[in-house]
Specification:
The protein is α+β, with helices and mostly antiparallel strands. It has 3 domains: about 10-115, no CATH class; about 115-125 and about 230-250; about 135-225, Roll (Chitinase A, domain 3). The protein is about 50% helix and about 15% strand. Strands 4-3-6-5 form a 4-stranded antiparallel sheet, sandwiched between helices. The protein starts with 9 loop residues before the first helix and ends in a 20-residue tail after the last helix.
């Protein structure tokens, strides 16, 4: 398993601060002592911050980031005035950010070059062709704590009461309104439940079934052959997979061709804790 550095675009943000000229066609949003901050700068910063913006409503993110960039531009100029850009420490940090930006640019190019429509289609069809035929069931259930309660539920259903109504009244499963579980394959449920559900015919109700969650009464509403998602529905997932695989393959090849010398041993392994008596 290869180690892959994070691909955050922090370096690109850092580089944007250092470059005075805005990108072509970029819209100027603010000026700090004459230096422009553009919508492209904001876009880069949003990509860099990623999850850090999760608590901010999407409609407010650009405003928040623009204020951040204004503060950063002011602070950066002051840091220069105080000669914080001089010295070996800053040079090391700058070299790190430059390498990181170049690495991210290479990863993006590799992913972009690998993700042609023809390649995405090829991978999709290859995976789709490997899928085995599978059946899905659509069912409802009523979950209770004891076998006696399950038998009482079954008597009510056999007397003609509506399954969904009884489920809403007595079922201990709060996640299924009217007991509805939707469509599911056998591996989505615990074995006892799946075995009982898939043995039923459409419209049939099971005897009480015990599982680790309690006692179930199951009604099978329908069965169907599971279909593989259409290409357009999973295109982005396929694209992500193809790009990441191409990036992995390329970096491994580059490592094989590079002369890497580790001059110090890695950290000693942490000893396993003694077993408790």
């Amino acid at each position: 398993m290869s180690f892959r550095p994070a691909r955050a675009l922090g370096a690109a943000l850092f580089a944007a601060v250092l470059v005075a000229a805005p990108a072509a066609q970029a819209k100027v949003l603010a000026k700090v002592n004459g230096a422009e901050i553009t919508d492209e700068d904001v876009k880069i910063a949003i990509e860099d911050m990623g999850g850090a913006l999760a608590q901010i409503p999407p409609m407010d993110q650009e405003t928040y980031v623009l204020e951040f960039l204004i503060d950063m531009r002011i602070a950066a100029r002051q840091a220069e005035a105080e000669k914080l850009a001089e010295g070996a420490e800053f040079a090391r940090r700058l070299a790190y950010q430059r390498d990181k930006a170049l690495m991210n640019g290479l990863y993006e190019k590799i992913g972009r070059d690998a993700s042609s429509d023809a390649e995405l289609r090829r991978v999709y069809e290859e995976v789709a062709g490997q899928q085995k035929a599978e059946t899905e069931a659509k069912a409802r259930h009523i979950l209770v704590a004891s076998e006696e309660e399950a038998k009482a539920v079954l008597r009510r259903l056999k007397a003609g009461e509506d399954f969904a109504k009884v489920a809403d009244e007595v079922s201990k499963d709060p996640g299924s309104k009217g007991g509805d579980l939707g469509w599911f394959s056998a591996d989505r449920m615990v074995p006892e439940f799946s075995t009982a559900a898939f043995k039923l015919e459409k419209g049939q109700i099971s005897d009480p079934v015990k599982s680790q969650f309690g006692w179930h009464v199951i009604k099978l509403e329908d069965k169907r052959a599971k279909t593989f998602p259409a290409f357009e529905a999973v295109k982005e997932q396929v694209k992500s997979y193809v790009a990441q695989k191409a990036q992995d393959d390329r970096i491994l090849k580059l490592r094989d061709g590079a002369k890497v010398e580790k001059l110090e041993a890695g950290p000693a392994p942490v000893p396993a804790p003694a077993p408790k008596k």
